[in-house]
Design brief:
With 195 residues, this protein is of the alpha/beta class. It contains seven helices and six strands, in the order E-H-E-H-E-H-E-H-E-E-H-H-H. The two termini are 16 Å apart.
Amino acid sequence: MIRFTGSIPNKCTVAFSGGVDSVAVVDFLLNGRKEVDLAFFHHGTETSAVAFNFVTKFATERGLVLKVGRLSRDRLKEESLEEFWRNERHRFFATFDSPVITAHHLDDAIETWIFTSLHGESRLIPYSSGNVVHPFLITPKKEFILWCNRKKLKWIEDESNCDVRFMRNLIRHKIVPEALKVNPGLHKVIKKKYL
C-alpha cells in the first residue's frame, strides 16, 4: 500500500521521470483527485531522450501539463556526474512557485543513509528541502511496482540504473543486499525515523 507523510496540496507538480516510482505517484495522486502537473528534467543523454518521448506521450494521453528543464551549464571539475545532474535538477525545481513532489521512497532513504554513513556523516533524505517535498519516504519501492502492475500501468526502465560505476547504483545493487543480511529489519529501522 502506498503511504505518505505530511499533506499533499490539491494542486501539485510531480518530478516525473517515467520510471515506476513516478508513474505510481502520479496515478496515486490522480486517484486521490489531486490536480497534477509534471516536471521532467532532460539530462541531455540518449536515455533522457527516450524518457522524454515516454513522458510527453504519458502527459498528452492524460491531459497533464508537462514542464521540461534542461542543463543550463557545463559540469564543474569538482562535480561528479551524479552531483552535476542532481544540482541541475534542483536548480530546475527551484524555479517553481509551488511545491514539487518527488517519488523518493523508503529504499531511496536506506541508500542515502548508507551512502552518507560511508562518508562519515549519516543522514536521511529530509521530508522537504526548499520547495521540494518527499512525502513517500515511508513507502517501499515494491509497493510502487505492485500499484503499477495491479493497474496495468506502463513505465520505462532507465538502463543507467544498473550501471554500478555510479555510486548510488553500487550501493543499491551490491551493498544494500549485504546490509539486509546483517539487519533484515533495516526498512523498519529507517521508516521509524520518518514517523
